[in-house]
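Recall the central idea of this unit: under ordinary conditions, the amino acid sequence of a chain determines the structure it adopts. In this exercise we apply that idea directly, starting from the sequence alone.
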Amino acid sequence: MKSILPRNVLWLRDKVDDFDPCNNAVYTSCGHKLRYDYMVVAVGLKNDYDQKHGISLNLDSRFERLSKKPHRSSVHSVFAGVLPEVLVLCAELQRWTGDIHVPKKAAKCSGAAQKIMYLAHDYWKKKNLHDSTNITYNTAGDMLFGVPKYATPLTKVAWDKNIALNYKLELIEITPKRANSWITVTLPYNFLHVTPPMSPPVCLTKCEELTNEEGFLDVDRHTLQHRRYCNIYGVGDCTSSPNSKTAAAVGEI
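Accordingly, the structure predicted from this sequence is:
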């Protein structure tokens, strides 16, 4: 990063604790007070595993994944930064009853859960194990992907792979290594991949002057300029722009 920054740019390796837009100031966790003339906010989204009962409790820790063989009935998430371990588990299992869960609220890289699903299916097909596996993709949305341009062909891909698709199912609770509970049904699994609920980080949501009612940076959808503070702009997933939180949002333009 340092090698590509202009010489007159200060790279402060710190994180924001508080915004003070009325005084054009930002406070950091290391105690710095930064003044600005203009500011671009790009704080992204955070993973809220605790929003759903049982996710944090049952999500295998990184230590467990690296020090033991994968559980025969376990909960995982590539959003926890452990893609290699999830793929190892796919290789370990010979018979698979798997659930993929995607929440209703905005999620960064909403296609990540599908990528795991297709990678696993491809591996088992090459090993002639796909006939002994059952894959179910559960989403709280009303289509497979939030951008219609891509949802239609992706749905056909899932059908061709005999992947069951369930729509408008909201994850409520995970029962450890037995079943995941939904609003009206309980689905058994021996492998569960969870896309956690996501939201802007606390440093942004607690600053009501900057956010809308959902906690996102309140910007004009066309200019990305803040709707109340003209010297503040936002980019990325933390903004209130109505597009999906994914690079595929380009297809919505």
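The first strand starts at residue 16 and ends at 20.
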